[in-house]
Design goal:
With about 230 residues, this protein is α+β, with helices and mostly antiparallel strands. It has 5 helices and 8 strands; from the N terminus they run E-H-E-H-E-H-E-E-E-H-E-E-H. It has a domain of about 150 residues: 2-Layer Sandwich (Peptide Methionine Sulfoxide Reductase, Chain A), CATH 3.30.1060. This is Peptide methionine sulfoxide reductase MsrA.
Length: about 230
């Protein structure tokens, strides 16, 4: 949410803020909309997926409104700082994205369908920004939890690149990196389900208008079998 007039640049591990061994705040126990626990362990048969697509307030709402999503929570992921704060992440010195963790029932909604929502809900060609939101924390990213998720994520990126190229957009800058070794650090309580608590609050999420074919119509959706992803760190 901060318009930064200097060119954003990711910190190196040596430059990143060190953080702290334990969080400075507590996370609410339950989702204000869905009523289910925010943090794991989650019921057997559910999957976990992590998405970064700009300001996490609007991004989270996109997912909790989707049938088959059991719970969502926002946090910081993909950088170096342990247990970061929002202010630290916005400084650009943690290396994290603003991410959404989505816990879903694959019998109702597939990971491929969530990928379609992800791609169509933001502009993945903008690098360290989404619209007027400028900073490394706003970059587009996927953090797969399983080899199957990683394969589907990569295939969907290739498929959406074809769609965007045809619509006159440039190269996708979305990074796809394993969730393993990239802990998801839950954000402060006031960020969780922010747009439910503040219906008129800021939402910078907006797609390009370019649509990805439904997974059933393409090959990229075939690599999304059901399964159980690891509980959050």
């Amino acid at each position: 949410m901060f318009l930064n007039h200097r060119t954003p640049q990711l910190p190196t591990p040596e430059e990143a803020l060190r953080g702290r061994p334990t969080p400075e705040f507590t996370v609410p126990s339950r989702h204000t909309v869905l009523g289910n626990p925010l943090v794991g362990p989650y019921p057997q048969g559910l999957e976990v997926a992590d998405f970064a697509l700009g300001c996490f307030w609007g991004a989270e709402r996109k997912f909790w409104q989707t049938e088959g999503v059991w719970t969502t929570l926002v946090g910081y992921q993909g950088g170096y700082t342990e247990n970061p704060s929002y202010e630290e992440t916005c400084s650009g010195l943690t290396g994290h994205t603003e991410a959404v963790r989505v816990v879903f029932d694959p019998r109702v909604v597939s990971y491929a369908e969530l990928l379609k929502l992800f791609w169509e809900s933001h502009n993945p060609t903008q690098g360290f920004r989404q619209g007027n939101d400028v900073g490394t924390q706003y970059r587009s990213a996927l953090y797969p939890h399983t080899p199957e998720q990683a394969e589907a994520a990569t295939a969907s990126r290739e498929a959406y690149q074809q769609v965007l190229t045809g619509a006159g957009y440039g190269e996708i800058t979305t990074e796809i990196l394993p969730a393993e070794g990239r802990p998801f650090w839950p954000a402060e309580a006031y960020h969780q389900q922010y747009l439910d608590k503040n219906p008129d609050g800021y939402c910078g999420i907006g797609g390009t208008g370019a649509k990805l074919s439904a997974p059933s119509e393409t090959n990229w959706g075939r690599s999304c079998p059901t399964g159980i992803a690891p509980a959050p760190e």
